[in-house]
Every structure is written in structure tokens, then in C-alpha cells.
Amino acid sequence: MSRPSCLAVCAALILTACGESSAFAQPREIFGSNGTIEPARGIWHSAEYGWILEIDADGITRWQDTPAGCYATAQDGPTLMSQVEYRYITPLGSDRAKFEYLPSDGNTVFERLGALPETCGAQDLSGRRATFDVFTSIFERHYAFFERRGVDWQARVAEARARLSDDMSDADVFALLASLIEPLGDSHTKLIAEFDGERHRAQYGLGTTLPMIAGGIGETPWLVGLIDQTVGEVLDPGARHIGNDRVITGMIDGRVGYIQIFTMGGFTDTQTPGTPEWAAAELAALDTMLDEALTGFADADAVILDLSNNRGGYDAVTRAIASRFTDTPFTGYTVRTDWSGEPDAVYRIEPHDGPRYTGPVYVLTSDVTVSAGEITTMMLRQLPNVTQAGTATRGAFSTPLAKPLPNGWYVELANEIFADAEGVVHEGRGLEPEVALDVFAGDDPVGSHGRAVQALAEHALTHLD
């Protein structure tokens, strides 16, 4: 599976995961891992993702292949997920190839077609009913969690179709489509549209903390308060706020190491987002930070990895973090798109060859912890030296599948099934902690975090072997 969020989230976010941002650098050719131009021109089809790539001298045209029709779309949508495009190809034979956004970053397999299907561009799909049919058929084909989230999709579509009419306003059509995704309660599923001179967004399942913050203190004051409190009050003098403001490191009472990571990426702004140079710079910046922090934690009695406000990011970052807390290789997670099929990818974690910490580790989580933050937690809690604390994570692991609609609107949905080494899928349920702590209390969402960190440090010290 290819995971565009490894590009999408890192470049520009601390306030929202998979947010809206400016476009990435777009490639005009597809390259092999050695940097040479590969003979990728032609028509390529991925049934798993409903994409057809038409590659010629001018670059890539992406077609959306849906049961309701096939149409071309621009790769410059309203979210970061919709702005990345393939750069690398690994041939798997004469008519099959793996396409990736960055080297060794995914497993999206395409089949070569002799020609563009006749259905592509054959009809205007931008009308009310055609857009409805495209929207609903995309979910029918690709959304992986109807049963997990308790939604009878076909019944809901039939009810919504009965209310659809050609004279509905844009606002009414938007509300109708939004009503279909609302019961999913999936924060990796969203609908975005522009009409009446404004942008409209439907996204649900954001947990309890973020809506509480939005309706109260506000997210920027909340984050500033959390950072000031952590660096100035909870941690010992000398605590550092580093990594392009994405990471906090320090000690608690000289005995417990502390690392808080807000996003799995975005650690540097020295390279153009979406380029191989940018990906290398991200991992290099992470390595430098972890080398310094874990070297300083060599004599610590325990370490707290605080992911309670982690909004997701680059999958390679999650695996790099996991490699720092084990002495033995282990299976981190698997990914597939078919519940009955074998994993499309199995990710093994090898111990890092630099500084590591394999003493007691506590991963602090909340319902803000999502996506790559959850993947990191899922991997680490499989290790015997790691304990999860706090509250349950959000339960949204899958990479959002980006699908522009034929009327110019845009939808994302969850189509990838992430599982731990035992095959357990936590999508829609989240990861429950072993040590319960109220991380973001409604009456004091800043102070409660500091108290939770201090309580966890005390717990760690009283539970030493």
C-alpha cells in the first residue's frame, strides 16, 4: 500500500491532521530508484484504489475509475492528501509495476493497459445525480469499515437517493452527501466543497477533546499553554522545544526521560515538501533529535513518549521511532485493503544501530492521538518494556484515499486495514491504555495534561523492577 499521508501531514501541520495547505512540487517524469527515467509512459490501472494513470511526455493525467463512470481530475485538490503525485516506479514484470511517492514508501501495484478504457471521459458526470452516484459508488467499492462502524451503507444510500432531486441547491446536495458519511464517525473521511463563495467541510469522529477545545479555549491558546507548561513547569531546567516546534525533550526529576512528538514529521523546512531530499532531511532531523535525547536518557529509570497530542504524519517516522525502543527485530504492523486477503505489506522493525532505550517506556495517548500516532502506539505496545497510558486513541489508522468528484468537490475515505502483529485491527475502536489517566480534562485541558505527565512519572518510578 502506498501511504500519501507520509507526505501529506509532515510538511505543514501542528493544529490539524491531514489539513489544508499549499501544493507540493509536482514531477513531470517517473524515475527508478537509481534516478534514471524509467519507460513508464502508457496507461496504468490500480483496481484497489480506482486510479488510472495516463503517463506521457507532459507528465501524469489521473483518471478516477468508478462503477458510475470514469473521469479525469487534477492533482491539486484542497488538502495535502490530494496534492501528492507518484515519482518512482519499480517494474514487477512487463505489465505490472509498483508506483511510489518516495523510494520504499509504499506498495501500490498497477497493471499496464493497452489503451484508456472507452468509459473514460465518455459522459458528463458533473450533474447532481451523476455526482451522487459517483460519490456513493466510490464508498461502496473502497470504504473498508462499514461493518466495523455499524453502518448499512446500501440502505442509507437508498434512503438518500429518494430525497435527491435535480433542483436541489448546492448546499442541499452537500448536506445530503454529508449525512451519508456522518454515521461513520471516521475522522479520516471528509467531504470538501466550494459553493456560494465559501469552502464547506464535513468531517466527523474527531473525538471529544478537539471539539471541546474548539468550543472553549481555542486550539492555538491550548497548544501554547501546553507547550509553556511542559517546558516551563513539568520538565527540569534545560528542557528543549525543537524539531521545527514539533518535539519537546527533557527530564523529570532527573530520573525520567521525556519526549513529546506533535506530528510524525515536519521537523525541517530546509527542502521542498514532497521531494526525496525532503524525506531524507525529515529522517535525518529525527535521527539527530533521538540520538541526542536517548543519549541523555542512558541512565534514566524510565522514559515517557508523549503522543497525547500527536496528529499523525509520515509512516517512515513511526518505524524509525519504534526502532529506538527495542533490542530485537519484531513485526510492527501489516496493511491490506481486503479483509479476507493476505497483507499487502508486512513492516518489520529492526533495532536502530545508534542510541536506543530499552528500559521501561510509557506511551501517553488520548483521543487526539490519531493515524501515524496510533500506528506508533500500536507497534510499541507490543514490546515487553512498553506500557500505554492515558486514554484511548481515536481509532483512525487508515490512510485517507483521495477522490476528487466530477463536479469539482472532493472526498477522502478510509480504505486501508492496519493490523498489529497478531492480526488485530483497532480501526474504529482505538487502543485502550493499561494505565488510565485523564489527560485533557474538560475543566482544565492544560493543567490536566501536566498533572497526567507528573502522575505517569511517579507511576513509572514506583513500578521499577
UniProtKB/TrEMBL annotation:
UniProt keywords, alphabetically: Signal
Top-rank taxon, per record: Bacteria
Domain Tail specific protease: 231-438
Keyword Ribonucleoprotein: no
Molecular function in Gene Ontology: serine-type peptidase activity
BP GO terms, sorted: proteolysis
CDD domains, alphabetized: Peptidase_S41_IRBP
SMART domains tied to this protein: TSPc
One Pfam family hit: Peptidase_S41
InterPro entries listed in its UniProt record: ClpP/crotonase-like_dom_sf (IPR029045), Tail-specific_protease (IPR005151)
PROSITE patterns: PROKAR_LIPOPROTEIN (PS51257)
Signal sequence, start to end: 1-25
Record-given protein name: Peptidase
Species annotation: Maricaulis virginensis
